[in-house]
Design a protein that fits this description.
It is a single chain. With 851 residues, the protein is mainly beta. It has five domains: 240 residues, Porin; 98 residues, Immunoglobulin-like (Sandwich); 108 residues, Immunoglobulins (Immunoglobulin-like, Sandwich), CATH 2.60.40.10; 91 residues, Immunoglobulin-like, CATH 2.60.40.10; 70 residues, no CATH class. Helix content is 14%, strand content 45%. The protein has a twelve-stranded antiparallel β-barrel. It has a five-stranded antiparallel β-sheet with strand order 30-32-37-34-35, with no helix packed on it. It has a five-stranded mixed β-sheet with strand order 31-39-38-33-36, with no helix packed on it. The radius of gyration is 62 Å and the shape is elongated. The protein starts with a helix and ends with a strand. InterPro entries: Big_1_dom, IAT_beta, IAT_beta_sf, Ig-like_fold, Intimin-Invasin_domain, Invasin/intimin_cell_adhesion. Pfam families: Big_1 (PF02369), IAT_beta (PF11924). One of its GO terms (cellular component) is cell outer membrane. This is Big-1 domain-containing protein.
Length: 851
Amino acid sequence: MPVTSYYSKTKRVTAYLLLFLQLFFPISVATSSVAYAIEQDNAVMMSDTFDGLNALIDTSPAPSAKPDGNSSSAGNSGSNNFTVQMPDGSEFGVMPADPGTGFISGQNGMPFPMSVSTLPDPAKPASRDNTVRTDDIFSALPTMGLPDISPEDEAAASEAKWAGNASQAGQILSSDNAVDASVGYARSLGENLLNQQVNDWLNQVGHARIQFGSNKTGDADLLIPLVDNPNSLLFSQFGIRANDERTTTNLGLGYRQYEEGWMWGLNSFYDYDITGSNSRVGVGGELWADYVKLAANGYFRVTDWHQSTLNEMRDYDERPANGFDVRAEGYLPDYPQLGAFAKYEQYFGDGISLAGTTSSGELKNNPSVSTVGISYTPFPLITFKGETSRGDSNDSKVGMELSYRFGVPLSQQLDTENVDLMRNLAGNRYDFVDRNYNIVMQYRKQELLRIGLPPELKGEAAQTLPVTASVLKAKYGLKSLRWSAPELEAQGGEIRQTGLTTVDITLPEYVFMTRTGAPQGYRVTAVGTDNEGNLSNTAEMWVNVIPSTETITKLTVTPNRELLANNSDQFTAVALLQSDTGGVLANKAVTFSVSGLKNSEGVTIFDTDGNSGQTLTVITGADGTATVKIISKSAGKGLLKAKMRNGNSRTEAIVFVADSSTAKIKTLELTQNKALANGQEKNIALTTVTDQFDNPVENFTLNARADNGATVVNATAQTDESGRMTTQFSSETAGDSKLVVEGAGTSKSVTAQFIADISTAKIQSVVITHDNATADGKAKNGVLVTVTDNRNNPLTGAPVTITVPGTARYQTQPVSGVTDSVVSYRWISPIPKLRRKIIPSALMTAVKHDN
């Protein structure tokens, strides 16, 4: 047996045992007492008690004495004669006061403990001592207001009680200080009678409570004492509560121990949700003192997951949540009607509802909530409460609690003075356990729709396999199924739905790789949708594809030579399909394609029926063959492939070449220009030749020539496989040179430049353009310098500098700059009549004057 199953069973047995104890044991113990208590007129009994007390301490005249010759005597000096009427049935009768002693003598000579000084003066009403003493309260606790003996035994006990009283009176009158003894006895009798009001409150036979909340909730609880001792209490508690969603019952058994002004207690409860058939057990602890209550509770589920009965949660399973809470409650000693309380709750698990109304959007994970509130009790019967919660559940509410105590007259429960008694340990003895009586629920989304698929299928490539999905659960029925196999479809497989739950899967081709023959797996999934729009689980299966035994045994291409890529010359290809047994395969699809050409779009494949395309699928005939023709506008070496849907294929090479009859020079461009005009450096041109479909023409003959004295290297040459030819040419003459390239029926030209070699620059000539200027610092002489390379090509842009000795203090400036091969300079002599000579050298010219 699984551990969880055993654990759940154990909890159920424990819960039912608690239920039995809490339900039947209290009933069996309390039935006779409760029945008898109902027959008693508690209000009349309490009224008689207070009437007797008033007869003793009120200011009304004393009752008339019974006639008795020995019942009276003269009073002492300063006192009036008087008589005291004893209770009916008393053996003492009327006892007159002894004038000598001031005591009242009984029929048997026993002094009655009362003197004139202790009796009330009619003119001076005596004040009442209503002090509630703890010792007196606890001495009266055990009776609960219910007799536990028969009427006959009660009569006998009454006679014994009065005999004891007579004996006590005799002892008092015979004592040395009879006056003090009499006074003490009277005071004790008065206090006991006054404490009867407290006893009537404490001697309850049960406690009932009814609560109404602002959120449309109602509760009813009943606490019944089972074993009631002065220092301990064993009790049972019953309850029922209802709201918009659930009706819950509670059965509890608790124990409370009183020690030195404190009460500690333990309790256990069985909570049952009638609406949803949920149950849990709870254990708790209490610690009380006057005006203060502390409590802690733990909650443990008994039932496990099952269908929720709430309409809002109809698609969810539910179970009680495990959790705990701690609580504190306190009251003001000076104003016990006003109280405050706080609590902290924590529950464990996902999908827990703490809100007043349950909805799927309000579910929380491991929620906690803190609550604070205040209460006001104008009199014991009614309490008003208000509280607010913060945390994973934010809520505020107010409510009224009606709390009725059996065995206590209604007038006492409407008395404001009795509220203080409720806040003391003696008065709250029968208060209810402070816990969460409503079962906090945990929810989980149901699997509304569940489907299944076979775990695995295996078949040959291109084989068609039927598949059926199983509907394992469908709360709202099955509306549709969505199938998915992207990898399978990417390889050419196909899924075709044949019914609501059935499909035909055409397996893709087998992809031949390194591991030839190994199965190739594809994942196939299905997701269902029900009639409410809910989605199912994702069911999956694996389809394994193995190579097919159907193959292309032969692929024949004719003619067996190169063809022109002129879009008219054509190859004929025939594919033969056979099975592994050698039989021909009719009505089988074969797809033809050509690859390897630079421009695959230029290829056209067509069959005898006029169908054409860059790829073409043809169905084999009765002889198992498929025939196509191939033409192309693209030249190059290609690979013709015939392929079956199962992945088996065969290839053959085909070659298309450019049509030189339509060749033309497409481009002529310089790849190198502006070579030095030294007869060694070369300009380079590139010629490209193509046919009418822009295919490069190989081995096409071209001739090249250049003007302005340029020399062409290899003036006649043929294009390479790319249809290109390179032409080089040189010159010793600087300037432009036109290159012309010609072929059969086509020609193009381009202009190149050759430049002078500045590395061989020299001053070709220096000519004075203006001389004999006056040396007045204003007039100017001028010179013209010409620069060329070693092949006398004028150098444009060569730098020329005219220098003058610094001591001569000449100033120079260019006239035409360095933009030409000839440059003009002027200079000025600031010293009058100073003459110098011009001395040229290398790339510069110095201008000087002799003295």
